[in-house]
Amino acid sequence: MSDQEIVSNTDDKGQGHREAKIKKAFGSLKRSDDEPLSKQEEERVLGIREAVTNRDRAKVEEHLASAKTESNWLYEELIKHPDISAILQELSIMGF
Length: 96
Prior knowledge:
Layout (H helix, E strand, L loop, with lengths): L13 H14 L11 H15 L3 H14 L1 H9 L1 H13 L2
Helix pairs in contact: 1-2, 2-3, 3-4
């Protein structure tokens, strides 16, 4: 299975495997200057991760819009991060 099949994972590894890949992708997000995420950024990332895990498109869009408004850095990193970008793109393609 490719990394781009994270959300639609329907193989025998099931839901737990999909959730682990999502958690790993979002857990690997960090600032390029090695500074820790602020509390607000951390909460935003966790909110997006939870919305992705639950396949809640409206919540994903809401959190991304807030991230873009609150922290250009965070929004750009979410979009540029290879694994997170693949997850968000797959959600978009799947209509979630």
